[in-house]
Amino acid sequence: MADTTIYAHGAFAGLSGGPGSGGSNMNVTVVGGMYGVDYSETQPAATIVGFTLINQTCAAVMYCGLMTLTVVGLQATASLDASAAAQYVAIATGMCGETGEYGDGDCKHTFPSTWNGVASITSQLSVVDSSLELRLTSGGSSPRPAFLIGGNQVSLENTFVRGFHSIAYFNSTAPYTFILAVGHGCCPR
């Protein structure tokens, strides 16, 4: 899918399932929905390029797949009140091989157990040249991280995060987590 706008108000997700190795979705805008991209069932090594995800209520991207999800040029922005922000994360990944579930309340989603037994190579994440922003429309602050990571490897490069409690929460049984690059600074260019 390319060069498309999806209006997903009231929908579970704007886009579900994704192409694997050798394929990608690019230049897609999703407005609304619980999830902008639901890749809880996708082929190995999914890639999304140039996505704009606006005002999802649970997560902009949810991924559970074999191998790495590559995200390039993602612009994810959510304007939520404090109670909705308590459930929102920009990207949730890797939970399939760890707990099988993500979220609570309206955002509770059970991942398929398809990849159980190979959790060491599932749901890796690479995010490059992206911006993730949470804007609260009422008082308070977000108690959630931008990334909810259950996989073993994460690479974040030239990615700006704003409005979240923290950059990432790691829910992994791996002996270590690999983060290629993290920086802390002022303003996106």
Structure, described:
The protein has a single domain, classed as 3 Solenoid (Pectate Lyase C-like). It is 2% helix and 47% strand. It contains one helix and 17 strands. The chain is globular. It starts with a strand and ends in a 10-residue tail after the last strand.
State the oligomer.
single chain
Between the first and last Cα atoms, what is the distance in angstroms? 29 Å
Look up the CATH topology: Pectate Lyase C-like
CATH architecture: 3 Solenoid
Tags for this model:
189 residues, 6-stranded parallel β-sheet, 1 helix, 17 strands, 47% strand
In short:
The chain is built from one helix and 17 strands. The chain has 189 residues and is mostly beta strands.
Draw up the topology in text:
Elements (H helix, E strand, L loop, with lengths): L1 E6 L5 E4 L8 E7 L3 E5 L7 E3 L2 E3 L4 E5 L4 E5 L2 E6 L1 H4 L3 E5 L7 E2 L6 E2 L13 E13 L8 E5 L3 E10 L3 E5 L7 E2 L10
Parallel strand pairs: 1-3, 2-4, 3-5, 3-6, 4-7, 5-8, 6-9, 7-10, 8-13, 9-13, 10-14, 13-15, 14-16, 15-17
Antiparallel strand pairs: 11-12
